[in-house]
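The instructor's notes for this session suggest beginning with a concrete chain rather than abstract definitions. Hand out the sequence below and ask the class to guess, before any prediction is shown, which regions might be ordered.
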Amino acid sequence: MTTREIHLELLLSKPVLDSTGKTVGRIQEVRAEQQGEEWIVKEYLIGYAAVLERLSAWTIGLKILHLLGAQKIYGGYTIPWDKLDLTDPDKPRLRCSLALFYVSGERKML
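After discussion, reveal the predicted structure:
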């Protein structure tokens, strides 16, 4: 497998396109695990709900939104690292249908 390095700070807030070219959200957060001296990306968080997690405010944010009357909070996706095509880092693209991913607040995993 070929590996390459991409500066994550340049990916943040980039719009992600689905297979039809429609924007599904922006990269708001990247989850990675340390393996030896390297960090390996595991998944990308995309959409509005991911902003709360990026700001480490997920639990507090959900409680505030529920107090304001929100029943379910949607608006974000967790995308496994291998399902995001970064061949062109300026135009990240999903490698499969958006319907396969889980929505923040309603966990549906690939």
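Then share the key points. Strands lie at 15-17, 23-35, 38-47, 76-80, 84-85, 93-94, 102-103. The first helix runs from residue 8 to 11.
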